[in-house]
Amino acid sequence: MFDKLLYIETFGCQMNVNDSERIVSMLAELGYAPTNEASAADMILLNTCSVRGGAEEKVYRRLANLRIYKRDGKKQIIAVGGCVAQQEGEELLRKLPYLDLVIGTHNLHLLPDMVRGAERGERRSETTFIDNEQRLDLFPSIKGESRLSRFVTVMQGCDNFCSYCIVPYVRGREISRRSADILKEITQLAEEGVKEVILLGQNVNSYGLNTEHEPSFPELIRLVAKIDGIERIRFTTSHPKDMSDELIACFADVPKLSGQIHLPAQSGSDSVLKAMKRGYSRSSYLEKIHKLKAIRPDIVITGDIIVGFPGESDEDFEQTLSLMEEVRYIDIFSFVYSPRPGTKAAELSDDLPKAVKMARLDRLMELQRHHTRDISKAYVGTVMSVLVEGEGRLPGQISGKGEIGRIVNFPGDTSLIGTFVDVKITKAYPNSFLGELL
Ligand code: SAH
Ligand code: SF4
Ligand code: F3S
Predict the structure, then answer these.
(1) Closest by Cα among 389, 409, 412 to 193
(2) Which residue among 167, 333, 335 has the greatest number of ligand 3 atoms within 8 angstroms of its CB, and so is best to mutate?
(3) Hey, which of 6, 81, 349, 389 has its CA 20 to 30 A from 330?
(4) Distance CA 435, CA 427 (A)
(5) 4 C-alpha vs ligand 3 centroid, how far in Å?
(6) Same domain, yes or no: 113 and 177
(7) pLDDT per residue as tens, the chain (438 positions)
(8) Does 281 reside within a domain?
(9) CA end-to-end span of the chain
């Protein structure tokens, strides 16, 4: 049934990873099998991200490289999807004569039709945002190879308009999926053997806030926890301003809820937070962290930080470092601020020299390396419940994630894949643990 090959490259966040999985399963019905070799592919799709600068240029460069393959006379469909596609639309078709398809973030359902057209030589761009009624029926539910851990989309889009961020412009308004659909999908996943679900959205903890008949996010978590077979629940990403006491309470009394939370602060300075339009202060962020730690002392926190936001002074930056000292993240993603066209922050004057921003990033990363090392070292000698997901890094090893979301490699038999086992941690690496089976 497969007579064609599809090559996809995915950039950016988990939304894009999910969309790519969905594209693979949609195009399988048209006879496309996935391949890792662009040169052999009948169709090439770049699923793009535009959250930081240089995104468009990166896409142009990558396409220019891939196009080498198209020159050998064979017809190859070239497509761009994701957030750069959403932003640039028709413009991409105009600029790149060899490009066949541009598919926006709300238009994946049109892809099969677009690909059939492209097979006949048609060029097409679809980037219209669709209305919420229709979107409710188009929420991605992924069919694919069976796995133990799966992302399940619970909401899409974002209404927060943080002043630096392009996401609301490229993913559209926030919409919560019907809880009935979410629970049905997770029940089905559990029946297929899935043990862990990661509830996915740009801002999952505002789930249900704009709907009349849906549960709140904490209520949704409790409903998911009731599903037999699902042993562990995570979620990503949360916005600190929507981190309610009810949600914090879940960490105390929903045992299936993982003991790790990603709570991006972005900055530790009140004036920068204000300019970022984040909707919380340093002290209210820290108060939430303290509540989480009080209710679940072993909770592990990860986050995102932006350095060099326009107007960030040395003092502001010191505030960010001191926030990190207070929170003690096990890990962070840190970025140098990058202006995005169309966002509010792009209009601010940004006269901080690049070298200063880079020096700040270096200091911040150095501090984080210390924290990561110290926090992970403290796990040596402790016992973790690990969901064994596959073979480990070295021969004879198996591996999986512990409650805190870190990979643990340990000697063991592959027959344990799919089960939870207790593992004693013997060594901490920067991104993983080594352990032994108990
Ligand atoms: N919805 C998520 C993540 C969005 S993008 C959230 O709100 O947490 C992921 C991260 O990219 C952000 O948390 C932020 O740290 C970073 N980011 C977004 N826009 C950026 C920009 N213009 N420059 C630098 N980093 C940015
Ligand atoms: Fe971007 Fe802010 Fe929305 Fe996150 S919450 S996606 S940072 S606008
Ligand atoms: Fe990037 Fe779009 Fe995700 S801009 S971070 S792929 S929502």
Answers:
(1) 389
(2) 167
(3) 389
(4) 7
(5) 28
(6) no
(7) 889 999 999 999 999 999 999 999 999 999 999 999 998 899 999 999 999 988 888 888 998 888 777 666 677 999 999 999 999 999 999 999 999 999 999 999 999 999 999 999 999 999 999 988 888 888 877 666 668 999 999 999 999 999 999 999 999 999 999 999 999 999 999 999 999 999 999 999 999 998 889 999 999 999 999 999 999 999 999 999 999 999 999 999 999 999 999 999 999 999 999 999 999 999 999 999 999 999 999 999 999 999 999 999 999 999 999 999 999 999 999 999 999 999 999 999 988 999 999 999 999 999 999 999 999 999 999 999 999 999 999 999 999 999 899 999 999 999 999 999 999 999 999 999 999 999
(8) no
(9) 46
| Same domain, yes or no: 25 and 140 | no
Q: Find the 306 Cα to ligand 1 centroid distance in Å.
A: 8
Task: State the amino acid at position 412 in one-letter form.
Answer: G
Report pTM. 0.94
Q: Is the CB of 304 under 6 A from ligand 1?
A: yes
Tally of helices (H runs) and strands (E runs) in the chain:
14, 19
Residues in contact with 93: Cβ distance below 8 Å, sequence separation at least 6, in sequence order: 99, 102, 123, 125
Report CA(236)–ligand 3 centroid distance (Å): 14
Ligand 2 contact via 167 beta carbon (within 6 Å): yes
Distance 161 CA to ligand 2 centre (A): 6
Q: What's the total number of domains in the chain? A: 3
187 shares its domain with 142: yes
Ligand 1: centre distance to CA 33 (Å): 33
Atom of ligand 1 nearest to the CA of 339: 22
Is residue 331 assigned to a domain? Answer: no
Overall residue count recorded for the chain in this entry: 438
Residue after which a domain boundary falls, among 239, 258, 277: 258
Q: Which ligand is nearest to the CA of 163?
A: 2
Residue 196 lies in a domain: yes
CATH code of residue 393:
2.40.50.140
Domain holding 194: CATH number? 3.30.750.210
Q: Are residues 186 and 82 in the same domain?
A: no
The CATH number of the domain holding residue 39 is 3.40.50.12160
**Side-chain-facing half-sphere of 59: CA atoms under 13 Å:** 31
334 lines ligand 1 (CB under 6 A): no
Q: Which residue's C-alpha comes closest to atom 11 of ligand 1?
A: 51
In a domain, 186, yes or no: yes
| Cβ of residue 86 lying under 6 Å from some atom of ligand 1 | no
Structure tokens at 271: 């004036």
